[in-house]
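lol forgot to send this yesterday, sorry. struct tokens for the thing we talked abt
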């Protein structure tokens, strides 16, 4: 079964974007990819919420994931700008549960908070890889919306990168169920 990895960057105080949905506050060294290329090559499918998708489209240049299956979850009518993009209007949890059963690389939960929350609540996210930026925003869009249930995490990896960025990797501890 494929795993879903929530791979993201956030401020130390837990925000993935500022109050306007912008991420210009993110820093890093132009000569360092922070392990991105290795991670990207392990991915077969990318999951995006509609606002994250629209943000990516608003950035000048080519669509950054031309060689991956990209699924965008939206309740609104959106246009797929590339043939590898599927706009999904149905239940994200059902869709992702089916994707996990398909062959292929990892599934990258690329954002946003509403999609992440629904998949975390459904028990479909397996790992979280978060890169902490050395900044306090004070307000903005959080890592998740309000979760229905807390999630226990097990720290499996840490790394300090250039520029004060810290990578933390957690496995989500799946609750034991006697009715399975």
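and heres what i got for the seq, position by position
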């Amino acid at each position: 079964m494929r795993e879903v990895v929530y791979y993201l960057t956030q401020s130390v105080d837990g925000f993935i974007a500022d109050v306007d949905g912008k991420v210009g506050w993110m820093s890093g060294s132009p000569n360092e990819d922070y392990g991105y290329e290795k991670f990207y090559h392990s991915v077969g499918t990318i999951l995006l919420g509609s606002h994250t998708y629209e943000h990516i489209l608003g950035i000048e240049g080519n669509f950054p994931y031309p060689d991956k299956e990209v699924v965008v979850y939206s309740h609104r009518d959106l246009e797929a700008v590339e043939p590898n993009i599927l706009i999904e209007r149905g239940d994200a949890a059902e869709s992702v549960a089916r994707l996990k059963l398909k062959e292929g690389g990892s599934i990258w939960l690329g954002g946003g908070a509403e999609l992440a929350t629904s998949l975390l609540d459904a028990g479909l996210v397996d790992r979280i890889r978060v890169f902490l930026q050395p900044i306090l925003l004070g307000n903005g869009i959080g890592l998740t919306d309000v979760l229905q249930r807390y999630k226990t995490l097990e720290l499996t990896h840490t790394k300090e990168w250039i520029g004060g960025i810290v990578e933390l990797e957690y496995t989500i501890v799946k609750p034991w169920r006697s009715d399975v």
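The CA atoms of residues 94 and 122 lie 9 Å apart. anyway ping me if u want another try
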